[in-house]
Amino acid sequence: MTGAAEDDDYEAGPPSQRLAQIGEIVAARLTAAQGVQTIPVDGIEMFVRPDFLTVEECARLIAMIDTDSQPSSLFSEGADNSFRTSHSCNLDRWDEEVEAIDIRVCELMGIDPSHGETLQGQRYRMGQEFKPHHDFFHINQSYWADMEATGGQRSWTAMIYLNMPEAGGATDFPMAGISVNPRSGLLLAWNNMGPNGAPNLRTLHAGAPVIAGTKYIVTKWFRERPWI
Ligand SMILES: O=C(O)CCC(=O)C(=O)O
Ligand SMILES: [Fe+2]
């Protein structure tokens, strides 16, 4: 959500010992976690946890997203309206069920909840999409000063698919040559940084247009430092 594809030689941010360490700790935790599978992707640390949420939990989150969502926003300057056409909302972090799910995600990742942004719900109707972007912050953008002061860089992303649209809506990683199909309750997690703790350009990804049906997801972005 923080910028479109960049040239290979573009420096999205400096190496960071802290982010490298977060990468190692979380990857080790996920590798050892029951029910988690490593996705063999060249140049990105990526994991899936099928059935992380039950069908009932997915249904309740979908209902909340339908009630609360508004047209999605973007961080990037000069962003155009076609870039992220979904509707989204912050899930109510004081709702008991949302809070419990949020904590479960943090526990799975082994990241203190203070580093996690509010869970975000997202709905894509037919034809809607999220064009190729990185989840990490681009430090040459005007929003960076504010983000740096409020928790810093985004380290890991955890996304949960709440349903399966009838067609389309995969999460594509064009530089890594992998595409993940929505499956109810499946959690997908990846490290937005490379081994040296610098932003990893290969994490470029997109929510492909939904061709038939509706797609619902929740996304959790983690920061390098406490966010609240
Ligand atoms: O909808 C998707 O599959 C991708 C969503 C995404 O990239 C995000 O929420 O940052
Ligand atoms: Fe994203």
Automatic annotation (TrEMBL):
Family matches, as Gene3D superfamilies: q2cbj1_9rhob like domain
The UniProt record lists the keyword Metal-binding: yes
The protein's required cofactors: L-ascorbate
Fe2OG dioxygenase domain ranges (all copies): 115-224
GO molecular function, one term: dioxygenase activity
Entry superkingdom: Bacteria
Record's keyword terms, sorted: Dioxygenase, Iron, Metal-binding, Oxidoreductase, Vitamin C
Protein name listed in UniProt: 2OG-Fe(II) oxygenase
Organism: Sphingomonas cavernae
Lineage, highest ranks first: Bacteria, Pseudomonadati, Pseudomonadota, Alphaproteobacteria, Sphingomonadales
